Amino acid sequence: MDTNRVHGALPDPPSEVHGALPDPPSEGAEGNKEEKAFEIVFADLESVDLPLGSTLRSIYDDQPNAHKRFMEKLDARIRNHDREIEKMCNFHHQGFVDAITELLKVRADAEKLMGQVTDTNRRLQEAGKEVTAQTQEVIRCRMQQRNMTTTVEKLQLCLPVLEMYSKLREQLESKRYYAALKTMEQLENVYIPRVSKYRFCQIMAENLPRLREEIKEISMSDLKDFLESIRKHSDKVGETAMRQAQQHRTFNSAVTKQLNLGHYTKPVYSFNGRTHIHVPNGLLMNNDTGDEEEADEEVLTAQDLVDFSPVYRCLHIYTVLGDRETFENYYRKQRKKQARLVLQPHANMHETVEGYRRYFNQIVGFFVVEDHILHATTGLVTRAFTDELWNMALSKIIAVLRTHTSYCEDPDLVLELKNLIVIFADTVQGYGFPVNRLFDLLFEVRDQYNETLLKKWAVVFREIFESDNYSPIPVETEEEYKLVVSRFPFHDAEIEKQDFPKKLPMSQSVPQIYTQVKEFIYASLKFSESLHRSSTEIDDMLRKSTNLLLTRTLSSCLQNLIKKPHIGLTELVQIIINTTHLEQACKYLEEFITNITNVSPETVHTTRLYSLATFKDARHAAEGEIYTKLNQKIDEFIQLADYEWDMSESDGRASGYLMDLINFLRSTFQVFTHLPGKVAQTACMSACKHLSTSLMQMLLDTELKQISMGAIQQFNLDVIQCELFASSEPVPGFQGDTLQLAFIDLRQLLDLFMVWDWSTYLADYGQPNSKYLRVNPATALALLEKMKDTSKKNNIFSQFRKNDRDKQKLIETVVKQLRSLVNSMSS
């Protein structure tokens, strides 16, 4: 071993050495220890696996001079190894030489052999070229054959996939989306897994979700188109359904009437603009042949008018895709929105019946479609969902109809609306929807219909009253008499015995009013039809509406007529006569209603006509107006009075205004001969009392300051004429001097002043048998005050003062006594 190399690898020894090599205590023992320690160090150095750092560190960390000793030991060990190597080389040197010698001998033979092998190989290669070529061709063919077989096998696996995919594309192009989804399902679950390692299959598999989404989008687009289309065609669907329901109802009604009426022939009534004639064989005939033509038409259903395939297709697609719930929620949400749109009324819908018809057609069309979807699919639309929609729709319909009918003033339009509501209710009821609330609404509409009828007949009544001449009906021939009697039930034996020409007591308005009341009953009856009500209920409806006509409309028209200023006493008398005949004719109106409804008037709950109160109130109003107008006329005559209150003596005859007034009263009371006796007597008594009161007020007028005895005498002549008029019995029926008692207050007051019987008056005052019982002390005092000579212009009192001052004192005494009586009465 090269000691210099070892020495060069070792670093310089440190100045101080510690640890591994202890200080030798003695040379012998310490030498053995040192040998062992160096043996260990050399063993570590000779080992190639151990790191040398720790070993070398132990050398330098030992005792001082350990480095030298180590180097010495190292040199010794190297020399020892060199000797061993030399010995080994000497031992093997001869064998090595022999081996080299043998190798040199073989070298020539090896070169010869190599040449032979090379030649043989060359010849072999040349000889095997053709075989090798043939072999390569065989191998290539075999490989091609194997590849072809593998390809065929793989193609046989791929062909069904490609065929199914081609089929899928065809189905998509032909819009057979449900079948396409089924094909996709087979591709995914059956075919593609067999050849999933191929790239085209992976592309197919990646395209399938995209195709599903496209199908979903396309089907949803078709559904949206369907929803938009059905919204536009709901009107036609509803129109068809309502027309079929109307035809069915008409047929059932005809059969029912045939069974119920038998061979009984009813009058001709006009309903819904068509004339229905009940012929003896019991069949119902119409003068409109339109129904027959409609009956011949092919019966169409919702499925005939609407293509529901988009709904079915979309439902199946979403079901296959596992997203049915999303589709159901979307469909129901959209249909709810459409329902709200359908339920919105059109602008000015209340103006024409076509507006209402279009509104009902759209609603019916909507629910016909929903009913078809309900029965044609499973779970897409449930009965609970349709009931919810119907309840929402019903509330909205009722609210809309209530609002719009309130604007309607035409009874014909309300009647047509009622017929539409009935047809609408029958139509939706045929699809299983409850319609009780609609028929309840019809009762409200009936009230509105009656109100419009009442308004219409109020105009009719006013026109009749305005065109009436308020004079008895002249009848020239028997034909005219029969014509009047055919229009109004009038029977009077005395008038029938009279020769033509003659006059009937009522005016022309009476038969017209009676006819119009019957027309009103017909109009009310039109609304009661098809309401599924019993004859008793219809009878009750007719009687109540007729009562409203009589008690409200006719009564109001009569009251307004009576209050009109141009209606005079003659007209008022004729009005009273007319109301009397109308009241008597009401029993025939009850019979008329009974004949229509076939409900006996003896039925417990049958409503009676309130004609008695209606016409009685009208007569009372007319009578009161007669009394008022008579009094107004008397006041007009009284205003013409022109007394000279300071005249010395009377003219010896009654005043002209009063004679005119009496003549007027005589002629007026002659007109009252056709009035009931009590009415004429009351009018006469009222006129006399008002005349007496007016004359008394004339005497006691506060603006009149002085009255002469001559004026009292003139006034007494006028009162005498009034008394003569009362005693002449201008109206028959008064007993004794009952009518003259109207002037008793004036007569006693004038007698008191004419006779100047104050002593008797004052003595008998307060006695029940007093001669001047009706003379009030205040009245006598007021008139006596007017006759006192305060301004020295009273000739009578001037004579008293000149002739006898004691008489003047007597007058003053009477005045004082009268004042004391007045004061005692007031206290």
From TrEMBL:
Residues 438-786 form the Exocyst complex subunit EXOC6/Sec15 C-terminal domain. Residues 1-33 are annotated as: Disordered. One of its GO terms (biological process) is intracellular protein transport. Residues 73-242 form the Exocyst complex component EXOC6/Sec15 N-terminal domain. InterPro entries: EXOC6/Sec15, EXOC6/Sec15_C, EXOC6/Sec15_C_dom1, EXOC6_Sec15_N, EXOC6PINT-1/Sec15/Tip20_C_dom2. One of its GO terms (cellular component) is plasma membrane. It holds the Pfam family Sec15_C. Keywords: Exocytosis, Transport. Component of the exocyst complex involved in the docking of exocytic vesicles with fusion sites on the plasma membrane. Belongs to the SEC15 family. PANTHER family: EXOCYST COMPLEX COMPONENT 6, SEC15. This is Exocyst complex component.
